[in-house]
Amino acid sequence: MSDVFTSIFAVTIVLGIMILVHEWGHFMAAKLFGVRVEIFSLGFGPRLWGRRRGPTDYRISALPLGGYVKMAGDNPTEERKGDPDEFLSKPRWQRAIIAVAGPTMNIVMAIVLFAGIFIFVGIPTPVYLNRPVEVAALPKNSPAAAAGIQPGDRIVEINGLKNPTWEQAISQVRVAQGPSLRLVVERSGNYFPITVPLSETRDVDALLGYPAIPPVVDEVGLGMPAEKAGLRPGDELLALNDEPLRTWPEFVEGVRHSGGRPIRLLVRHNGREEQLQIQPIQGHTFRNEVVWQIGVTPRTEEDYKRLGVFPAFDQATVATLAMGRQILGVVGQLFTGKVSLRQMQGVIGIARESGRAAKRGTISLINLMAVISLNLAILNLLPIPILDGGHILLLAIEGGLRRDLSITVKERFVQVGLLFLLVIFFIVMYNDVSRLLPNR
Questions:
Q1: What is the DSSP string of 344-391?
Q2: Which has the higher per-residue pLDDT, 347 or 314?
Q3: Residue-level pLDDT at 1
Q4: In 33-140, at which residue ranges do the beta strands (DSSP E only) sit?
Q5: Between 259 and 329, where is the model more confident?
Q6: Sign of CA dihedral 292, 295, 299, 303
Q7: Is residue 86 annotated as a catalytic residue, yes or no?
Q8: CATH for 217-300?
Q9: Which residues are bridge partners to 192 per DSSP?
Q10: Residue 422 has what pLDDT?
């Protein structure tokens, strides 16, 4: 029961702040252009308390999940006076800026949250990157395996660079010129020169082998095949389809090359070995590549490097843009049918993720807030009626026609958008509930 209360409290904080920031963006843009704001509410529903300053009623409402802004004359179906401080009395470009200001504030919020983590905690860096290049395992049919590299080898020289770390090795692969890498490998006290042909992709795993990353589960995705099969955080992965696992990337390779067939996984949980059968599903990498996956992340040992203010905001902007491209890629694949709506999470899924993040600590919760803030921004900018992107689309159409559309057309526009979003909402809610049920 405590987990339920933690999830409810966490999702209230996470979604509440993100929606409030979104509405604050609309509010500030409206004030900038002289639009009369009648209500700025923390929460929804009945008014509990408030104070009026000028034309605006600043209130606290009963339901604490976010908030809203009510601008004078913002509803074309309601009677309006045509006063110059009404929303619909303003030029279209000003109304468009007011509409885009909400998502913009969510993007800014994501950057600020990421930057705060980088300044006060630091950028996480896997510890193995600063260790010698010791090969734990090799991808099957890889150039490294074909060239003669074996598990247990230590690569002591790459293109003349002696005793490289994994981080230096990765850099050497990226900048290497010519048709191959020239390596010196230490094996049982003996040294061997080895030449590995360079591939076009410059895949470090294929060219050098896998680093030693213990195959231990850190997080299990909610509603994912791993969770449904009984895999838990802290489980040690011993074998995949009866093949021993020496390092985490070896496990990832096995799942991705499963072809969607069920996999047999031998795990150790609290000192006891268990055999699990898991059905992989299709998912996407950060490059939006379609792969088979079961929904787990590795427990990696990490160092943290704190950044100054300007480098932190620079890295936060890069991280936000990269994540934004990934979200847009997934959204595009949703519309083309390459990604199923079954993979989307709604309020219940967000609540469970928020609860888990809150239990892991403040930093995990802040990171989740940044991710949700960016998702909220991008989804609101989609050209769907009712959403901010739909308002912008409507203003663009009216600008192109050089006249306002009729009230009837606008009402139909809104009704179509509302129906579309309701259908998506119920599908996602159904998926959320289904994930809570066993054997689904």
A1: ---HHHHHHHHHHHHHH-HHHHHHHHHHHHHHHHHHHTSS-TTSHHHH
A2: 314
A3: 46
A4: 37-53, 56-71, 123-126, 133-134
A5: 259
A6: positive
A7: no
A8: 2.30.42.10
A9: 185
A10: 78
342 and 158 in contact (C-beta within 8 Å)? Answer: no
User: From 1.10.645.10, 2.70.180.20, 2.30.42.10, 2.60.120.10, which CATH number describes the 127-208 domain?
Assistant: 2.30.42.10
Q: Which of 23, 157, 250, 253 is catalytic?
A: 23
Q: If we measure between CA atoms, which residue out of 343, 345, 216, 238 comes closest to residue 281? A: 343
Burial of 116 (0-12, 13-18, 19+ CB in 10 A): middle
Instruction: Tokens 């500030």: give the residue.
Output: 28
* Residue 354 structure tokens: 């928020």
How far, in Å, CA of 242 to CA of 239, rounded? 5
User: SS3 for 38?
Assistant: strand
Query: Strand 123-126 relative to strand 302-305: parallel, antiparallel, unpaired?
Result: antiparallel
Note every long-range contact of 91-96, with CB atoms under 8 Å and residues 24 or more positions apart, other chains counting. 92/395, 92/398, 92/399, 94/33, 95/391, 95/395, 96/391, 96/392, 96/395, 96/396
CA torsion through residues 8, 13, 19, 24, sign: positive
Burial class (CB in 10 A: 0-12, 13-18, 19+), 227: middle
Return all residues near 11 (Cβ < 8 A) that are at least 6 apart. Answer: 347, 350, 351, 354, 355
CA gap 363, 120 in Å, rounded = 10
DSSP for residue 338: S
Sequence ranges of the chain with CATH classification 2.30.42.10: 127-208, 217-300
Residue with tokens 């119920």: 426
Rounded CA-CA distance 348/326 in Å is 23
Instruction: Identify which has the larger pLDDT, 301 or 8.
Output: 301
Residue type, 226: A
Cα separation, 140 vs 153, in Å, equals 16
pTM above 0.85, yes or no: no
Instruction: State the number of CA atoms in the 13 A half-sphere of 256 facing the CB.
Output: 14
